[in-house]
Amino acid sequence: MRRAGPGAGATVHVPPSLENRRARPDLDNVSDRPDPRPVPPEKPLPSDCCGGGCAVCVNDAYEDEREDYEARLAAWLQRHPEADPAG
């Protein structure tokens, strides 16, 4: 296969898997990347917090991670409507 642009005289190797995708429009929306369900963050143990009023407490970091997880899970559930929301 030849392409225009820099090195226009060069031949570009296109893997058969990509060439087949061009030849098969029914595969255009199929992703080769896995899309696993997001995993919730691990809740810190009570002993993980020193109680010293740290600028970034382990409990605050956990809450931030949990909110991020919930957003990623909501997006994942939209992509996988057949999945059980409860997990």
Automatic annotation (TrEMBL):
Composition bias, Basic and acidic residues: 19-36
Region (Disordered): 1-48
Coiled-coil portions: none
PANTHER family: OXIDOREDUCTASE-LIKE DOMAIN-CONTAINING PROTEIN 1
The protein's name: Oxidoreductase-like domain-containing protein
Species whose genome carries this gene: Cognatilysobacter xinjiangensis
Domain (Oxidoreductase-like) ranges: 38-75
